[in-house]
Design brief:
The structure is a homodimer of 340-residue chains. Chain A has 340 residues and is an alpha/beta fold. Chain A has 15 helices and eleven strands. The structure holds a DNA duplex (30 and 30 nucleotides).
DNA sequence: TGCTAACTGAGGCACGTGCATCATTTCAAG
DNA sequence: CTTGAAATGATGCACGTGCCTCAGTTAGCA
């Protein structure tokens, strides 16, 4: 039977449609024996609920909120653009997406915002904010109120379980791998720049980077991570310092998603000196650098995929389904001049 | 208004729901002035047809057929696996997917199969077969009968317009780029192996490869393409010959999607001799080779993405929509040991 | 045995759209 | 003004599911 309906189910199980409905929607007051009979029929006929009809009946709408940081780097711009686009892609599934930007460095702020959301108006939230006890609590309470919550790109625990984002360990290792293989001299030191080493992302990337370089390119040497704290002067000072003290510089790995500041400074300081440079995330800036040959590779995650994956996962949670995991894995993309 | 309905449209345009229906579904017998009024209302309210309700009303189902080659390489296995998986992912959208394998080298065969499909039972076909006049004709007639048709992965013209598959020129260039950069000696010759140079895929990859190498690594030298015709003995002979005559071998590019035969032969012939090796498509075999360090990189297109993209495009065609192109672009993926 | 509580059945409306039929209005030609 | 065709309105059923009410049946217990 092509797509059996609840009617078919009822006939097969020898019960009424009302009882099938009770079983399907987990209402109580049904004998276990009857429940089993219906479940058997479901299995036998391969019944799959027609979610579209169900949504129609319930006038179900999905409203998803993306809670993002305020800081306006280009990667974030791309994310926001793709959220808008996802809104129109998923419109036919009755999905609406909204962006809300918060000061992600004040956990209280984040938690307060999450506290304002309730199931009546919001089906789910994708949260991009550093981990903290307050935020963890707020997420817990969100779920209690029936709002789906999803760690988005950054920084929540057990990312691999249910969050959306690439494997940062693998990303760091890939950066090291490329620097090691692109570097014809096989020796030299590598400069690593991050916005801050507080974040889980940076830590994991650095771990992957170190482990790969140590294991496969032992004659190269990694310098301590430089933290810019998003401050141009500070960045300039520490980078200049490092460049001066390490004449054997062979590679540069910019770990933060905003590569503009560090790369601009490095370009200024070491105009023609050539060493291998790797940065994260595809943005207008990194693309231009790659094309110009001032950057050797970009390690990227597809922002469109990130957003759509988040939407699908949130929707699956609301519908009470398991998302197909193979579709949701975010690849560590290696972008070169030739496959931009 | 959150999702206006045809009722709202009717009220806004000052006509009845019947007339709205006539306009929406392009039935005739409506004055131009009325059509305009309705269209204005659509624009003003931002009306979007609820496809789910429409499908429910029409009992619309989508049955998509994937016409694939018979030859059983591992890449094809992966594709087929993902078609099955897509079947369950898209089940909620009332989509069914079926695989039909044909002898792709006999155009008459392909065209005969396509001739058996009609709109009553089949909504669309994704076709993976070499281009030929017969097939082109058959596709034309399919469309006339109201069956959507889509070039899939391989070999039809104007791929960029509407087909599904990666940019082969870019893929070839990326292979050359990697070989050039990984090769520390900066000189040497490169062996290129294909199943056949008849196919558009191989030609485009080779063009991209040559152009990149010539432009950016001029001190390296590309050898003429070796064609295996899928024959082990022949492959063994020509590869052995090439290896013997080119002691300066620095790189190998396997262009075909089935890399097992050529790579196995090369492994046999030049056990420890190390040169850069690049192959296409992620399969159990190429993954294992990459892990073992016998392969330096895989240039891949995500088979799951290919399949889902094909389904979405076919569905969009049936629904009379434009697919969001940004989601459908197939990336040229660079896979290394570290980002498997 | 009778009584009550637990369970089950029957039926109907709603969701937004497609599609059909029949009635009514409009408008231009005669 | 009449006539008739073209245009539009009114209405109702269907799709598959959720959700509600009310009536009927069964089972457990005293």
């Amino acid at each position: 039977m092509l797509r059996p309906t609840t009617k078919d189910l009822a006939k097969e199980a020898g019960v009424s449609r009302a009882t099938v409905d009770r079983v399907l929607n987990g209402r109580e007051g049904v004998k276990q024996k009857t429940v089993d009979r219906v479940n058997e029929a479901i299995k036998k006929l391969g019944f799959v609920r027609n979610i579209q009809a169900a949504n129609l009946a319930k006038s179900q709408k999905y409203r998803f909120v993306f809670a993002l940081p305020k800081s306006g780097d280009q990667f974030l711009d791309a994310i926001i653009h793709h959220i808008d686009e996802a809104g129109s892609i998923f419109a036919e599934d009755l999905v609406w997406c909204e962006v809300h930007q918060i000061d992600e460095n004040d956990p209280h702020n984040v938690s307060a915002f999450l506290g304002t959301l309730d199931a009546a108006t919001t089906s789910g939230v994708a949260i991009m904010a550093p981990e903290s006890p307050q935020v963890r609590d707020a997420i817990y309470r969100l779920k209690e109120r029936g709002v789906a919550a999803l760690p988005f790109i950054s920084d929540q625990t057990s990312m691999d379980d249910h969050g959306v984002g690439m494997n940062n360990n693998s990303a760091g290792a890939t950066a090291a791998n490329l620097i090691g293989r692109f570097n014809r001299s096989e020796t030299g030191s590598v400069m690593v720049i991050a916005e801050s080493m507080q974040s889980r992302d940076s830590l994991e990337r650095r771990l992957g980077f170190d482990s790969e370089l140590r294991q496969h390119f032992p004659s190269m040497r990694v310098l301590p991570s430089l933290e810019t704290y998003g401050n141009y002067e500070r960045a300039h000072d520490i980078i200049a310092n490092t460049v001066q003290n390490n004449p054997d510089l062979a590679g540069l790995y910019v770990m933060s998603s905003e590569a503009r500041t560090p790369l601009t400074i490095v370009n200024e300081l070491c105009g023609t000196a050539s060493f291998i440079k790797i940065a994260h995330e595809r943005t207008p800036f990194t693309e231009a650098e790659l094309r110009a040959g001032r950057l050797d590779s970009i390690i990227a995650q597809d922002p469109g995929h990130l957003v759509r994956s988040a939407v699908r996962k949130l929707k699956a949670t609301v519908d009470g389904r398991q998302p197909k995991s193979s579709q949701e894995r975010i690849r560590v993309e290696v972008i070169l001049r030739t496959n931009l």
